[in-house]
What we know:
The protein is mainly α. The chain is built from 6 helices and no strands.
Amino acid sequence: MRMMIREIGWATRGACRESDPELFFPLTPSDEHETRAKAVCEGCPVLKECRAYAIREGEPEGIWGGLTVKERRSLRFPSGWRQSAAG
């Protein structure tokens, strides 16, 4: 319960709170949506908290902390991570 309250706290201070959610979670993602969403994230006071949350929780959709799903996935699972674990 404490974690949820803390998570909600940073989210209410996000630069995206006044933006259209479609910008961060478009039905049809495009480079334009990505660029515009990342521009909002750029000056966000809770960018680090948002990014850490999305990476930790494995958010499967949207732009979080200025990162796309693919960018977050590459941070969670860097190139070669399977080979080193198996070797």
